[in-house]
Amino acid sequence: MKFNFNVPPYTGKEAEYIAQAVKNQKICGDGEFTKKCNEWIEEKTGTKKCLLTTSCTHATELAAMLLDIKPGDEVIMPSYTFVSTANAFVLRGAVPVFVDIRPDTMNMDEKLIEDAITDKTKAIAPVHYAGVSCEMDTIMDVAKRHNLYVVEDAAQGIMSSYKGRALGTFGEFGCFSFHETKNYSMGEGGALLIRDEAFVEKAEIIREKGTNRSQYYRGQIDKYRWVDFGSSYLPSDMNAAYLYAQLEVAEAINDARLAVWNRYYENLASLADKGRIELPVVPEGCVHNAHMFYIKTADMEERTALINFLKENDILSVFHYIPLHTAPAGQKFGRFHGEDRFTTRESERLLRLPMYYKLKPDDADYISGKVKEFYGSRQ
Prior knowledge:
This protein has helices spanning 14-23, 32-45, 56-66, 83-90, 113-116, 136-145, 200-207, 213-217, 237-247, 250-273, 300-312, 328-333, 343-347, 361-376; strands spanning 49-53, 74-78, 95-99, 121-124, 149-153, 161-162, 165-166, 173-177, 190-194, 286-287, 293-296, 335-336, 350-353. It is α/β, with parallel strands linked by helices and 379 residues long. The chain has 2 domains: 14-247, 3-Layer(aba) Sandwich (Aspartate Aminotransferase, domain 2); 250-376, Aspartate Aminotransferase, domain 1. The strands form 3 sheets. The chain has an 8-stranded mixed beta sheet, with helices on both faces. Strands 7-6-10 form a 3-stranded antiparallel beta sheet, with no helix packed on it. Strands 11-13 form a two-stranded antiparallel sheet. Helix 1 runs antiparallel to helix 9 and helix 2 (32-45) packs across helix 9 (237-247). The two termini are 28 Å apart.
């Protein structure tokens, strides 16, 4: 393919920093580069504590453990999300309660959350789709009035904000992803953002296999012991070294992606004005990070035809999530509350165009031109 859907970000310093991590002879978790990444995220987002993890999935699992999610508890979330949002709570025996999405942002419809609350509801898990924030004022108000926890799935949301505040910092916990498809990558990796310092010590213990080793390394105790349940959620410092090379130039990467996103939007606005496609919506107060650029076609049949046409022209475009409530595991472990007015319908129309660091605005011109060519042939 001349234009792959995704190319992992690479700045040029990754190999140098990995070599430095090896030279430091500290390539396991919580080495120099892990600490640098944690500190960078804390400073950038204003969160009380950041703990780099092996994935966003594991960050969400950590959040579920810290909230003591138990069998029978219910967690409200969108069905239009990746399986990790639900799995983290299902592993604790909880029931995902899916609610419909807003068709404009593809985010959970905040107006439907309250009706889905029962005496078993323990938490709300909003997902910031495409790095565009959910309506967090409303969600946090509902959570406060019903004494519920909030775990933000901000896998796609680093560098995005809502009313001037970084995504991932509203709820008790926020979860970032640094998978190779994300704006900043360490191959596989993530981060847990902790709002309340009261959770920090236990988070460190769970992340360190149930030991108080973090306190030991800080010189707070003379030896570390097994003190609670836990697992190994520490990424290698070599992975963190790869990530830190990108965080150092995070603004430049963000600006480059936004330039491509804006070019797509400008080029395809004429098709949207004619009603041939729909373009992404970024509500007032939301600052996004150009994580993805998508369009909505008339229906699944048209989307499939466009994917095939673009593929014939060396452009790889893809659709996205299959709604969880329609999947076998979603039907087994969870339930959909209310009417599925938009989740399935909108998911069947959404098409993602190539978006990655070092894709150029000129490339967006070419890809947009092919999209317009497709619709020109279907007058």
